[in-house]
Amino acid sequence: MYMTIEEIAEYLSLPESYIKKMIQLNRIRAVHDGKQYLVNKEQFNQHLEQLEKARKQLEEWRNEPLPEDPDVKDED
Fold this sequence. Notes:
Layout: E1 2-4, H1 5-12, H2 16-24, E2 30-32, E3 37-40, H3 45-63
Antiparallel strand pairs: 1-3, 2-3
């Protein structure tokens, strides 16, 4: 499915100027139909899946309780 720069920016929650710059730097593949750039949405699926996996791992890491330190002594 091809989308315009505006639609891709909304889909990725990024500014349009950033998307345009990434297209110019060939970081995002796009085709020009004479009037506008069109971007294939499918090229972002793997990236978005990896981001979601990283978010879940970070959340698990943040929620993991700290182990008690055997060298800590009660000062009272």
